[in-house]
Amino acid sequence: QGKFTLLRDTRTDGSFLVHHFLSFYLRAGCKVCFVALLQSFSHYNIVAQKLGVSLTAARERGQLVFLEGLKSCLDLLFGEEKEEEQQPSPLQFISESTSNLKALFDFVRTSLTPTSGDSWKGPVLLVDDLSVLLSLGAGPVAVLDFIHYCRVAVCSQLKGNIVVLAHSNEDSEDVENELVVNSLCHHSDLILWVEGLATGFCKDVHGEIKIIKRASLELTAEQDQVQIYQYKIQDKNVTFFARGLSAAVL
């Protein structure tokens, strides 16, 4: 509890980790707030069904709070004016001059604050993917402030967990995105860094994952623990193996 996990992908798609954590926390009985900025609800639901979890059922029983970013953006930009009585959109910053993510933070805090009838084990914030906020016009400082406030509210006060996916490309000229990703690396308890193979495509090895357990956050003299595996994504699961030990080699 109280951990911040960063999912980082470079030259490949690390979304399979998002699907894993989503189904994992729902099966564990946790209350999940899923800020989905990259895909539609039906996309995540189809993948979750393959993993044995129904997002529709989880949402109906109040275990899953799902923010469909694509739909919210369209409603804000092209939708009709809504009644003033309704709550402001969590992505309100798109239609405002200042990139203030306070409405998004309020949505997260309200969604995960337990009520008297709740029996869920612990709150979890899942974000896919943080880089989209920069593309929508939020500044890097606003994004880092949002994550900081979420860590205080979810990890420290509510004793929950945060899992965030962010794309990165070290050769990219997107300075703002690299600033955000590198800053998050310094604050993470655990980093799962997925990279495409430097040698190119292989049908038996889809990429490499670096698991970095941060010891430096606890102000000890220990070094960060780093483990490196290669993986292959299958229809309903992912297989991991040490480098050079894939089925193609053996």
Automatic annotation (TrEMBL):
Location relative to the cell: Cytoplasm; Nucleus
Could you name the domain of life of the organism this protein comes from? Eukaryota
CDD domains, from UniProt? Elp6 (cd19495)
Functional pathway: tRNA modification; 5-methoxycarbonylmethyl-2-thiouridine-tRNA biosynthesis
Query: Which InterPro entries would you find in this protein's record?
Result: ELP6 (IPR018627), P-loop_NTPase (IPR027417)
One GO BP on record is: tRNA wobble uridine modification
Q: What is its main location?
A: cytoplasm
Record-level GO cellular component terms: cytoplasm; elongator holoenzyme complex; nucleus
* Entry keywords, A to Z: Cytoplasm, Nucleus, tRNA processing
The record's PANTHER family line, in alphabetical order, gives: ELONGATOR COMPLEX PROTEIN 6
Family in the record: Belongs to the ELP6 family.
| Protein's name in the database | Elongator complex protein 6
Record the organism: Jacana jacana (Wattled jacana)
Q: What is the lineage of its organism?
A: Eukaryota, Metazoa, Chordata, Craniata, Vertebrata
